Amino acid sequence: LADGGLEYLLDSRKVTCVEWADRIHNLLPEDTLWLTLAHRACGGRAVRVRTGSPERFPWLSEWRRIVEAE
């Protein structure tokens, strides 16, 4: 990102998905929304959602209720 001319990927008006983003975490903005997927021993996947700026994602406080309602 630093020298590749990819700054447009960090436009706050857009959604960008980066596989293995933990490898470039120091180049991503503080308000990055992190989604971590993991295999569960009992099958299926677990999803972890986190951010350094929860005020930018007010729906996160309702995340568990939204997911469990489905």
Topology at a glance:
Elements: E1 33-39, E2 45-51, H1 63-69
Antiparallel strand pairs: 1-2
Number of helices: 1
Structural class: alpha+beta
Distance between the termini: 37 Å
Query: Strand count, sense and closure of the main sheet?
Result: 2 strands, antiparallel
**Beta-strand content estimate:** 15-25%
Description:
- There is one protein chain.
- The chain is an alpha+beta fold and about 70 residues long.
- About 10% of the residues lie in helices and about 20% in strands.
- A two-stranded antiparallel sheet has the order 1-2.
- A hairpin with a 5-residue loop joins β1 and β2.
Features:
globular; 70 residues; 2 strands; 1 helix; alpha+beta; two-stranded antiparallel ribbon
Provide a concise account of the structure shown.
This protein is α+β, with helices and mostly antiparallel strands. It has one helix at 63-69; strands at 33-39, 45-51.
